[in-house]
Amino acid sequence: MWWWWVLVVVNTILVAWLIHLAFFTRWRGPWYWLRWCGLVVEVWLERLTWDKRLNNYDLSAKPSYDYCGIEATPTEKDLELPKPLITDRHEDEMCMCGVDRGGRVFVARIGRLTKRRASILLYLRDQQGQVYTLPNQPDTSQVNVSSDGGWRGSGLALIPVEAMRCWRIKFNGLMRRGWREQYVTEGGNADEHDDEDDNDPNNNNIVEVRLDLLWRGMAAPVELWEGTSLRLLAHTLAQRPFTSLPALRSEQGDGYEHWGSIHGTVTLDNDSPVIWHLRGPRRHRWGLSPSGGGGLQTYTYFNNGDLLCLRGHFSTHDSTLSTRAGYLLRAAGDLLPVTWTDLDPRQHPSHPTLASRPHHLLLKFTAGGQLYETWHQLGERMPFYTGDPWVTSHDLHPTTVASSHSYGWGITLFSRGYTDLCPVPERESLPTLTVPRIDLQDDIDGVPLVVTLDDPRCRSVDLVGGKGASLAYLMAYKELLDPDQEEYEVPPGLVVTAAAWQRQLQAHPDLLQAVRAVRQAATLSQPASLRDACGRAVEVCSSTKVCVEVVEALVEAAEDHWDDLNTCSLAVRSSGCSEDGEEASAAGQNETFLGVRGRERLLAALASCWASVFSFHSVEYRRQRGQDVECGVGVVVQEMVRAEAAGVVFTADPTTGSPATITITANYGLGESVVSGSSEPDTVVVKRGWRGNLKLLSVSKGAKTTKCVLKDDGGTEEVEVGETWRQGEVLDRRAALKLARVADYVQEAFGGPRDIEFALAQGGGVHLLQSRAITTLDDWNDWELTHEQDAAILTDHELLTRANTGEVLPGSTTPLSLSVMPYVLDRGFQRDLNRATWPMKTFLSPHHVRLCPSFATQVFLNMLEVQYRHIEGPEVNVTNQAIDLAVYGRLVTKEQYLEWGLERHGKASLKTRALFFLTILTDMAANTSRYKRCLHKFGEYNIGSERAITAASLYAEISRRIPELMESAQTHEYTSRISSLTQTIAFIMLAEGKKALSEANTSDMATLLSSCTGVESADVPAALKELACVLSENEEVDEFLGMTAEEASVWLQSHPGHLGHTFRAFIHRHGHRCVREVDFGALSWRLEPHCLVHTLQVMARQLDTTTTQQQQQQKETVKRETSLEDIFTTLRSPLSQRTKKALKFVLPMCRRAVVQREATKSILTKTIDGLREGYRNLGQLMVREGRLPSPDLVFFLKHSELGQLVDSPSPALIAKARRRQKLLPQLNDLKFPEVSIGLPSKVSDSDDDGGVFRTEDEAGRRTMVMVGTPVCHGKVTAQARVVTKLQDAIHIQSGEVLITTSTDVGWTPYFPLLSGVVTEIGGLISHGAVVAREYGLPCLVGVSSATVLINTGDRILLDASKGTLTVLPHQEYQTQQQQ
Asked: What is an example of a Pfam family matching this protein (predicted)?
C-alpha cells in the first residue's frame, strides 16, 4: 500500500499548491478573479466607512456658511495644513506643476522632513527651451529651512492664501542654466579666492531668478484613494494576499491632487518680467517617504480642457507587483476614474530590467466606459534625487501628448529606488528651540518680572516683546556654533517683562486710566483727541514712580549681572510685544536710552521706555496696522559695547530681496548714527555664492561726518570724524567677510533673511545687538494684488464676455464683493445645472467659478458654460442669434464658438433634453410662488447689524446670513432663465422657420417687449418724477434748490409734511437701489441719498420752467399695456395666423417673465443692501475695537480675511487692504473687449470701431453713422451728452441724448431728463433697454465705441427705428431744429 501513501502525499502537495496559487499568488486563474470580486465588494464597503473630506458641500437650499461654498469646508481647510512628521521616514510634500502650449514648464516641489530638513526641487523651462534648475541639482536636500511649519526653503515659498482656492508661489534666488547629471562635491574655501566656486566650470551659468506667481484652482480636488477606481484597487490588493486597503494606504501615503492655473511674472537673469500662464496639478501628499521600488506618474493638460493623471508603482522586492491608478477630469467637470490601463512599470526606464531609455510612451486606458489612446513624446530628461541621504532617483520629462480625442502637454516623472552611496556630505540642521508656554492672562502672579537673556522663558514674545525674544534666540544660537564657524557675542543683559508693566498698571490707577483713555481715543479716528490722550499718557507714565515689586526684582537681577551700576554703561531699550515681528517691525517707534548709569537713571529710563509706547507716533503706527494700541511691553537692559564701528547687516538685498548679496552699512562708533540716519555710513556689498561662499563685491564710502560715542559720565554724544578717517573705510575686507559669515549663520538659524544690528569691539570681536525679520520681502506687488482674485481660465479658447456683467458691475469690483458674489451666483448656477443634466449630479464644486469668473477685479460671464451648453449643432441658428440680441444687442456667435461648446459639453442627449424641458415647465409654474415667498422673506430685509455689540458676533451673523443671499440669488436666476427663454421662443416665432433673423424681426421684438408694463426698474423714474412734481409745488422749493445736496437730504428726511412723507416712501421702496448695486462697496440711496437729492434738484428746476398744464400732463403720464391685436398691426414681420395664435400664448408669459425678473432682481438687491449695511457696521465695530484703522477698509478685504482680523490682528492684511484701495482708480479705468478668447487683454478706447461707417451728403459734407440694435423705436435730433462715470451724470441737461457704456438702476433718476439713450454694451433685456421702453425713449444698444467717437455737445440724429446714430454737421442740425 506504499503507492497509496505516495498518491496521498502528491495530491496533498498538488492541492496545497493550487490553494497557494489561488489565494496567495498573482496567478490570474479562476480563484484570482473570485478573490478580485470579493475585494471589489470589500473595498466598496470600506469606502462607505470613510468620512468625505473633499467636495463635501451642502447641496440643500439652506446650507450653513461652512458648507455653502464661499470658503473651503472645515475638512478641506484641515487637509491644506502641514501635516505632523511622526518619524524621520515621514514626509509632507507639496508639489505644483504647470505647462503651456508654448513649451514653458514649471515644477516646484517641497517635501518637509523632520529636524528642519526639506527636499526642494525647482525646475523651469522657458519658451526657447532653456532649462533652469536649483544650483545643487540633482540633489534636493536642504537643511535649516524655516521652522514655521510651512513649505519654505532655498528662497522658494509655497504659501496658502485661500484653502483650495489660491496659493502664492514666491522665489527670489539663484538658479543654474541647464541641468547636471551628477552631483559635484564642494571643493576649497572660496573666501580665499578671487572668484567664487573656482572648481565649478558652470559658474557663469548661475543667474538670479525671481518668481511672483499665483495658483488658482480650476477643478474640484481629487483624493488619491477616492479617485482610484474599485477595479484597479481590487487588482492591486489581489496581487498582495496579505495586504489590506488600510495597510496599502499607509504604505503609499495619503493626499490629494488639485488642478489649477499658475499665472504671474517670471524674471530671468535680471531681465524684464515676463507673464507666464500655465496649467497643471498641485499635489499634497503625506506619510512615509517612498523608499525603493519605482514608478511612473504622468500628468497631461489637454487643449480642450480635459485633465489626465496616470500613475503606476512597482514593489522593491518583486517588480512584477504593481499598483496602477488614474483619472480623467473632463472640462465639463465630470471625474472619470481610470478602470483599466496598459501602463506597465516593466516597460519604462524606472524598471531595472530596461536597458535603454524610451523617447515616447504609448498608453491606453479606459475611463467613463470609453477607450482612450495617448502618445507621449518625452522631452529632455532632468534627473534629481530625494531623501536625506538619497533614497529615490527621479527623471523628469516635459511631454507633448497626442490623444484619440485631443492633444496637449504635460509632465512625466519616472522614479526608482536609489541603492548607491549618496555623494552629498552629511549635514545637520540647527535644532528648533522650544519656547515655554506662559499665560499672562490667567496666571499673572506666577510670571517673572525680570528674566535674563539666557533664560528659555525669554524666547516668549508675549513675555518680553519682540526685541527681547530675538536677543534670547541669538544668545541660544551662539551656544550651538560649530568650532569652524565664525564666533559672535551677545552683550549680557536682562529683560523687564510685560508682567512687570501689568504690575505697574495695577499699582497706579491714574496710570491705568490714562492708558485706557488712549485706547478710547484711538477708536474715535480723531487725530487731535488721540494726540492729547497720548501726551497725557506719556506725561503720567514718565512721572509715575516704578512700583516697589518691579524695582526690587530689577535691582536684584542687575546687581547679579553687573558689579557696580554706577560704573557700568547700559543700553535700555523698549521691546513691544507687537514689535520686530514677521509682519511689522515697528523699528524706531519706541525709545532707546544709551549709556545709562546708576540705579535712579536706570529706573527713569525704564519708565521712559514704558511711556514711549504711548507716544502719538507709536500709537498711530500700531493703530494704522490694526494692532492693539494698549499692547504689552518689555524693556531690555544690556551692557553697552564700546564699539569701534557699528551698523546694520541685511542678509538679503533690502530693496529687491535678492539673496545673492549681503548688504552692510557701517559707521565709526556706536550704531545709533546709522540707525537714526544722522550720518551717512559706508555701504559694503558682499556677494554670496550658491554654496555660501562669500566675496567682497563693492564698497561705497559715505560722508561719515559724525559718529556717536559713549560719554565718560554716562549717555552718548555726537562728535566729528577727522578728515583722514572720513576718507578711509570703516570695515576692511576681512571684517566685512567676517560679518557676512556671522550674518549668514544667523539667517540659517532663523530660517530666513534678517536685518541685524552689530557692533565691532576693539580686537574685531563681533557683537550682535538685534535681529529682526526683513518684513518687506513677502509684500504683494501691484500685479499680484490685481490678479489675486482672478478665476482660473480653463482653456486658451475660453469665451468670456462683459456684455451682461459690465452693466451691473462696471469697472472694478471691490475685493469683498469678489470674495462672495461670484460664488453666490455660481452656486445657484451649479445647483440649477445639476437638476437639468442627465445623469443628475449630486455634488457641488465651488473651487472654480464657472458662471461669472473674474479677471483683474472685473467680472465676466463664461459663454461656453452658459450660452453654448445646450446646442443642437455647429451651425449658427435662430436660437443663437436670439440669445445674442438679448444679451449683447448684436450678433456675436460664430461656428467656431459652437464647435468649442460641442467639444466640451457634447450634443445634449434625449434624456437631458427631456429633463431640461421638464425643469423649464416646473420653473414656469413655480416662479410666481417662488417670487411671493422671496418677497415675504426678504421684502423688509434687515439683519439687525445695528444691535451687534462686538465685531466677532456681527461677523458670525453676517456669515450665517450669506446662505439667505444665495436663496435670493437662486430665485432671481430661475426668473432670469425663463425670461431669456420666452424671449428666445418669441424670436423663433417671428423668424417663421427662417435660418437667420432679419432686421424686421429685431425691430418687432423691440415692439413686443415695449408692451411690457409694471417693470420694477422702470417704476423708479416714475416715482422720482412724481416726487419732483410734489417738490416743485411746495412753497419751500426755492429754499430747497439753494441748499447743498447734504443739507437738502437732511431737510427732506425730516420734513413733516406731504413732501417728507413722499420722499420717505420713495426711500422705503427704492432706497436699496444704486449704481453697482450688487457690489457691497457701493452706497445705496438709503445709505447715501446725496446723489439722488441732487438729481431731484435738477428735476425741480426743470419743472419750475414748465407750465402747470404740462406738469399735470407729466404726472398723469402712465404707460398702459397695449392689446395683442394692436401690437400685431404694428409688426413688420409677415406672420401666419398660426404664428399669431402662438404669439398670443407666448407674449403674456414673456411679459410676466420680464416683470418677475426685474422684481426678483430688486429683492436680490435688497438682500445685498441688508448685508451691505451689516458690513458697514462691522467696519465701525472693528475700528472701535482697534482692528481696523478705517471702516471703509472692510470692502477691500475678503470675507475670509475679515474673519482672520476678527480673530487676531494682522498688519500684513491691513497693508494689503490699503494697497488694494490705492489701486482701485486705475483698475476702474481698465477696459476689455466685449468678448475675449482665453485670457482677457485690455484694450484702448480706439481699438474697436466696429459698426461705424462714414458717408457724404449731397453737399459733400462727411457724416459719421454708427449702427446698433434698436430696443425702443423713435427718432430724435438732439445734443449728445457723453458720460462714462455716474458721478459725471449730474451735468445732464434736459432734452439731451445720453451716450454711455452701460446703465444700471443708479442711472434711473436721470432718465426723465433724457430724450434718448445709446449704450455701447447691453441687449434687449438690459436695464437701459427696459427703462427706455417703459418711457418710450428712443434707444440703441450695442453701439461700439460710441463714447469715444462722439463728444459732448455733438449734434446727433438718433433713429431707433432704423438702428442708426448719425453725427450731424452743425448747419444740418440748425436746419432740423428750425423744421
From this structure: PEP-utilizers
**10 Å Cβ neighbour count for 828?**
20
C-alpha cell recorded at residue 761: 569691539
The pTM assigned to this predicted structure is: 0.90
DSSP, res 873:
-
Percent of the residues in the chain that have a pLDDT greater than 90, as a whole number = 45
| pLDDT of res. 196 | 43
The continuous run of DSSP H or E covering 465 comes out as helix 461-478
Return the higher-pLDDT residue of 1240 and 149. 1240
Q: How many Å apart are CA 757 and CA 735, to the nearest integer?
A: 15
Higher pLDDT, 1377 or 859: 859
Kind of pairing, strands 1355-1359 and 1339-1341?
unpaired
Q: Minimum mean pLDDT among 104-118, 165-179, 419-433, 989-1003: which range?
A: 989-1003
Q: In 144-231, where do the E strands start and end?
A: 151-153, 156-162, 166-177, 206-217, 222-223
DSSP structure string for 425-454: PP--PPPPPP-----TTT-GGGS-SEEETT
Angle (nearest 5°) at CA 780 between 777 and 785: 170
CA separation for the pair 270, 257 (Å, rounded): 33
Q: Under the phi-then-psi rule, with left for phi > 0, alpha for psi from -120 to 50, and beta for the rest, what region is 1175? A: alpha
Q: What is the pLDDT of residue 6?
A: 77
- Whether the Cβ atoms of residue 217 and residue 304 lie closer than 8 Å to each other: no
Look at the block and give the residue holding cell 555710513.
681
With b for 16 or more beta-carbon neighbours within 10 A and e for fewer, the 390-420 pattern comes to bbbbbbbbbbbbebeebebbbbbbbbbbbee
pLDDT band at 1113 (very low <50, low <70, confident <90, very high): very low
The C-alpha cell at 1217 is 487692504
At how many degrees (to 10) do helices 230-239 and 30-48 cross?
A: 120
Distance CA 710, CA 531 (A): 33
Phi and psi at residue 174, to the nearest 5°: -100, 140
Q: How far apart are CA 1006 and CA 1012, in angstroms?
A: 11
H or E element that contains 1357? strand 1355-1359
Given a contact cutoff of 8 angstroms between Cβ atoms, the answer to whether 839 and 336 are in contact is: no
If we measure between CA atoms, which residue out of 945, 956, 961 comes closest to residue 1177? 945
Cα distance between residue 1283 and residue 1267, in whole Å: 19
Q: Report the alpha-carbon distance of residue 465 to residue 959 in Å, rounded.
A: 35
pLDDT digits (tens, 9 = 90+) for 153-194: 989 999 999 999 999 999 999 999 999 988 887 653 434 333
DSSP 947: G
Whether 1138 shows a pLDDT value over 80: the answer reads yes
Q: How deeply is 91 buried, as exposed, middle or buried, from its count of CB atoms within 10 A (0-12, 13-18, 19+)?
A: buried
Residue 239 has pLDDT above 80, yes or no: no
Q: How far is CA 495 from CA 456, 477, 1026, in A?
A: 12, 18, 73
Is 753 within 8 Å of 777 (Cβ atoms)? Answer: yes
